[in-house]
Here is the input.
Amino acid sequence: MGFLARSILVISTLLIAVLYQKYRHLTTPGSVPTIELQEYWGAGDAEKYTELRDVVPFELNYEEKVIDTLKEKLANFPNLPQPLEGAAFQYGFNAHRLREIVDYWTSDYLKRWTERQSYLNQYPQFKTQIQGLEIHFLHVKPKNVRNPKRILPLLMLHGWPGSVREFYEIVPKLTTRSDEKEYVFEVIVPSLPGYGFSEGTVKQGLSPAKIAVIMRNLMARLGFKKYYVHGGDWGAIVGNLIATFFQSEVLGFHSTMCTNSAPMATVKTIIGSVAPKFIVGEEYVSHYYPLTEKFKLMLTETGYMHIQATKPDTIGTALTGNPIGLAAYILEKFSTWTNPAFRDLPDGGLEKYFTLDTLLDNIMIYYLTDSITTSQRLYSEAFNVRELTKDYDRIPAHIPTACAKFRYELFQQTDWALQDHFRNIIQSNHYDNGGHFVAIQFPDILYTDIVQFVNRLYRREDQY
Here is the structure.
């Protein structure tokens, strides 16, 4: 054998060995890390902190002068440039539409603020200290249910730019007895740390994994040893991590945005694009492919993510105390994340599925609490080398999992890509409509999907 042939053989062998080792590394399951359950996130020194374990009732109660100040700010509408001729929402939030919404906010919504505040106070709300932070949550118990085995705890987690307001329509369906289920849910809906009425940390490093521990500790504080988890957006990420770290506690995980960020999931997604009909039913291919179209959508819709992952305090400064800018920034997401085609509508399609009262309730939570900056910092804490290299999705999650896949959700993965992490997907339903905020958009459909999932598990003896 000649020198060149031997060299090629040696190099080829080395290359195959390297690729094999890389494959072994990518496919080797990870293990659950040691979880620090009492890591301190409050101000000052942890040694000087004594946690108050009391669960204290909470209600919104804003003085009239706060609302009067808001009215003054809304009356000072900026001299915005006119939208370009023929442009709807393609360049961002349409200034004409923004003016209409601000006029409604001032002339109608705020005149009924007492009514809206009562609406937001309709469910029992509480605060308690967890790991140095004051955590806010709704806690809605079913009424007139005598058998405790018929009451199932359900932790529901929101995302950005949402809030606990996302679940107001679905809560009464979950907590009320009905023919399609033998049980009712006891629903706990926390505001994530730094969102709405939950305190934000002053320390660096409060990542989704750390928030997962706080949320688990909240459930423990309330006396729940086993419970179900539902989440979308950041709630999906945090819920996934709860279900990964605390598998003996989570009865089942339901999500509208199931994701697996492990490298093999990306490889499988790319492979699936070559022959998608072999990976998923033909009628569902458009949920995932073609990848070029999905990539274009992500490029169009995730500019905010780069800003918030790198300079959250800068954009937060521009939005804090600026209700008009805050409304444009947040409501744009409720337009195009519900359906990207809404970019071509002069009104952004905002009232096709949402009422202005619902949308403004959510804006008011961010405005009144000055929480836009602290909410955006979560992106910086999640998308950094320190956090991404932990590769939590390589840890097998064996808990029963359900993935509700709505047509216009920002990001979707096939079950084939998900299953290396979620080892027990027992339900995967596709829907021809629906976007990122389905708890508000289609509460009946989401409710039915959750119940269908839990019905599969309710009769199992190991649930008790």
About this structure: The first strand starts at residue 56 and ends at 58.
